[in-house]
Amino acid sequence: MALDSTGRDHTEDNAQHGNIAADRLRSLVERIERLEEERKALAGDIKDIYAEAKSAGFDVKALRALIALRKKEPAEIEEQETLLDLYKRALGM
Amino acid sequence: MALDSTGRDHTEDNAQHGNIAADRLRSLVERIERLEEERKALAGDIKDIYAEAKSAGFDVKALRALIALRKKEPAEIEEQETLLDLYKRALGM
Amino acid sequence: MALDSTGRDHTEDNAQHGNIAADRLRSLVERIERLEEERKALAGDIKDIYAEAKSAGFDVKALRALIALRKKEPAEIEEQETLLDLYKRALGM
Amino acid sequence: MALDSTGRDHTEDNAQHGNIAADRLRSLVERIERLEEERKALAGDIKDIYAEAKSAGFDVKALRALIALRKKEPAEIEEQETLLDLYKRALGM
DNA sequence: CAAGAATTATGAACCC
DNA sequence: GGGTTCATAATTCTTG
């Protein structure tokens, strides 16, 4: 284990090495922050493409809807569709 | 029971009354939609109060934090505070 | 205005009545909490209906999908549909 | 420009090449989907690290709070803290 | 107790 | 630039 709410470290031999948990924490934080940076960069790239699409005359909102549709559709072909259709018919939809 | 994935209704005497499940479904849907409407109205009311607070000079973000704080158990608040401080110190913050 | 980050109240005659902002804050908080309680109660009612539906043999997930569909569809009939269809056809979808 | 709501393409010489806009659209969609895939992978990696932290005995919620804290400007943290304390005192908390 | 879904909150983006 | 809507992130709750 690591640092708990008492600030005590109960892990086997980590008791002698109080800084081990701190090092572990620092490592975790750095890895997370590094990945979040990359993710933020990707988000920026995506935003840029949407901006490019807009300046090329495409409707960004419809484009987003298109992307979302392509993401969803394979999932919707799944098992639930049958029941949903059944319920829709039961309500005359 | 009601409509299952085969579209067949296995309930005792509902077999003779295929529309019973449909009526039941319609009733459920209507009750849910009615309640969701009310809930949406309440959400609008809450939003209005935050807007009123803002125009009265209060900081909405801090106000939200205050409301959230009052929802939590004092013990839970203390626990999280303690851990956060511990982690901050471990990183020398 | 009300309480600001200095804790000073700069509003006209509220300077004499330092508690006015506090009363105003208390009132806002109480109204918000009251409405949130009602909203929570409604959420509970809705949950109960889903439980009732489940025990009546309906598939809750499909039922949720149905409700969501009835909420969305009128909005999707709007103007964006045309563009979306156009884009879909452009991609051969 | 590209496809507009009439499905007509008014761009200069693109009239002769009706498929140019479609190709452009396809390219945009593919680039976006590619980047979103990468972003999703990163999100998964981050989730994995939090899981690793949890199994190492760290409190995930506090860890998230720590990461969020490090993202904010010290001045912003101070500002929000001050306001929250002010509001708490106003309510006698 | 872990995993997945659903609701809620926060932050960004677009329009006015 | 401010407000509103949309998208994403996170917490909570339910279910297996």
Q: Structural class, from helix and strand content of chain A?
A: mainly alpha
Ranges of chain A where pLDDT stays below 50 over 5 or more residues in a row are 10-16
- Largest interface: pair, residues per side: A-D, 34 and 34 residues
The string of secondary-structure elements of chain A, in order, is: HHH
Distinct helical segment count of chain A: 3
Give the total of domains of chain A.
2
Structure description:
Four copies of one chain form a homotetramer. Chain A has 93 residues and is mostly helical. Helix content of chain A is 70%, strand content 0%. Chain A has three helices and no strands. The first copy, chain A, folds into two domains: 58 residues, no CATH class; 35 residues, no CATH class. Chains in contact: A-B, A-C, A-D, B-C, B-D, C-D. Chains A and B meet through helix 1 and helix 3 of A and helix 1 and helix 3 of B. Chain A binds a DNA duplex (16 and 16 nucleotides) through helix 2.
Quick synopsis:
With 93 residues, the first copy, chain A, is mainly alpha-helical. The first copy, chain A, has helices at residues 19-55, 60-76, 80-90. The structure holds a DNA duplex (16 and 16 nucleotides).
Task: Supply the key terms.
DNA-binding, mainly alpha, 2 domains, homotetramer, 93 residues
Describe the secondary structure blueprint for this structure.
4 copies of one chain form a homotetramer.
Chain A: H1 19-55, H2 60-76, H3 80-90
The structure holds a DNA duplex (16 and 16 nucleotides).
